[in-house]
Amino acid sequence: MKTKLKSITTAITLFLITNLVFAQTPPPLGVAADFVLFTSVGAISNAVFSQLTGNIGTNSGACTGFGNVNGVMHVVNGVSAQCAADLGAADSNLSAQAPDSTIGPVLGSGQVLLPNVYLLPAAASIAGTLTLDGGGNPNACFVFQIGGTLATAAATKIILVNGTKACNVFWKVVGAITMAVNCSFKGTVISNAAISFDVGCSLEGRALSTVGAVSVSGLTAGTPIGCGSPILNGPTAPNMQAVSCFAVLAASGIVTNTGTTAVVGDIGSNSLTASGFDTLNVVGRVHPIPDLSTSQGASDLTTLYNYLNGLPPDIELLYPNLFGNSQVLTPHVYIMNAAAMLTDTIFLDARGVVGAVFVIRIIGALTTNSNPQIVLVGGTQANNVFWLVNGAVTISTAGNFNGIIVANGAIILNTGVTLKGRALSIAGHITTNDADITSIICSNSLPIKLLSFNAAAKDSYVQLNWVTATETNNDYFTIERSIDGINFKTIVIVDGAGNSSQILNYSAVDNAPLSGISYYRLKQTDYDGQFNYSNLVAVEFNNMNDFTFNIYPNPNYGEGFNLQIPKNNAKVLVVMYDILGNEIYSKVIITSVNGNDVYAIYPSRKLNPGVYLITATFNNGIYNKRLIVK
């Protein structure tokens, strides 16, 4: 009888939770969905470099202090007028929703809330952590109706678990909104007054005001992914044709090298000579003088240049002299209408879209400061990144560059430059010095014809399947997994068929998948040791019993960070890796019993700007977060 009553109680509880999850309806945002910052009436301003993905604007006021934005600025135009109208409708929709529960006025301090329409009748505040638990439903919706102002304490965090998405979280605030330093906020905020973010805050969502100024400083923010948001594929990838054989090619110019430069791919010039390369350091073919291969390559390079040049731009980066500074770009066609200086770092984030294409078009020369970094995240592949430069390109010493450079001018790769991609010039010399250039080896006959490769998350594992049409001298396959789309680990090895002309189906299982988004690829190896890779496949795996930890401030400036982990009376191994996979810090932490612990982590040296991976190993599971250092 007890068992039966328990089953009935559980069924009723699940029924009620399910109805709570579906009780709320997200308001239609219209044009406002594309904006990360907006005010219908008021000024919008920025004080310190902010990294913003999404449109920004005002329909009545000035827009000042913003550098390059990964979006479009709309100031008192037709789009801003439509945004103001759509924002007003969304504000009314949220105000009209009937509250399910009255809470507050103080939120946070480890509090956990389920999907609901919550009413906070007067001014409210948030401190510590506030967890929004979707109960396993990806459509779970949260609405907070706040009848006064909203203020957060320093380092406040909104944590989303069990299916909750930032695109389904809404904060309707009657009064002003003040976000203190280093807060991490989630959801769409709609205020009827001013909105301000202090330095070091992050926002996954939107900050929209119907009447009031919007001011930010050092904010990292982006419109949320999901809930019908567009999937960013970028433009159609060009057909590289014969250019795909070359790592270095000058259609009209000399190709010269000094020092020890390692190259994977062919090297050549179609008008003069290619010299200075030691063939022992070249995995490919050096064409010392023009021949049929360089002639076809030069012709196809012109076609490639014209194709890229003809793509209509989606986003103009208005300040080419401020290019870099840890900005994040997503799959689009970008344009800079003047010579550009790359300072520090650019992050190219495909957001898990396999094969997403980036085109960065510069009407002028491209130069860099010392040690420039192009960092690929979210599954971005170097062969899908195109730098179209209508001028010369100079990459400074020790630069780490990713993508295919297509220049209408000279290309100089200085000492220690690493280029994962190609250096191609239609009109100019190419000079390299102790560089490392990796593209692909040209091959007229691939060892296998791969029809498909896919991966899917199951209850406790990830299923991987692939199909080949033909195989030639195929020794074995390797399934590799990555948490950043850059550094990969072998998961399983599967024997190949050797030689086959029949359709063959293969499968493998990752029995210990990582929490969150992982990237898988298929590596095929011949009997002679040569190998090829498939495209990446992104899989999101969510374990309802996941261990959760947080790091803040994030982004920061490399002096150290705070690690917040659950108290579970267990050992947690914390390891930090740089973008190349090198371990730079590790520590075993023994936690307490209940609540949360916060530990200050100080690596032995100040961290250089870039992306770092923080892993926490607990109960044989590996959980990860990214730390961005400006």
Characterize this entry briefly:
With about 625 residues, this protein is mainly β.
Keywords, separated by commas or semicolons:
12-stranded parallel beta sheet, single chain, 630 residues, 11-stranded parallel beta sheet, mainly beta
Radius of gyration: 26 Å
Question: How much of the sequence is in beta strands?
Answer: over 45%
Oligomer: single chain
Global mean pLDDT: 87
Number of helical segments with 4 or more residues: 3
- Beta strands, count: 58
What is the count of distinct domains?
4
Low-confidence stretches: 1-23
- Main sheet? 12 strands, parallel
Structural class: mainly beta
Shape: globular
Helix content: under 10%
The N- to C-terminal Cα distance equals 61 Å
